[in-house]
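Q: Sequence in, structure out?
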Amino acid sequence: MDYFISLASFCDEINLNKESAMFFVYEGSISVKKQEDEFFIDSETADTLRLISEIQNELGVNNEGVSIILNLRRKIIDYQTKIKTIFESIDKSKSIDELIFILERTGIFKNTDNGENI
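A: Exactly. Output:
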């Protein structure tokens, strides 16, 4: 990861409260690199901060609400990826046994981040 921009200056650029940004740093939703007395972010973190700013400014959602939205968004993306893998496996398989073998090999039915099996 290349850290490229100051967190404080980026927050000013996207109209995001610096305290809100630090909330997400402490929560672990975004990662920063500290050099001397300044925090720097990478492009992935910048994208997440843009999304946070958009949710807060356009929808009026507080930090805790944004955190819930981000977690739900991650889960939805994860499930979309799993569903895509299942459909690709169905297309590739020639029999139900082969389909089960492919799906087991992908690990798609292993525990999710919250301990659930699917």
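The chain has a mean pLDDT of 89.
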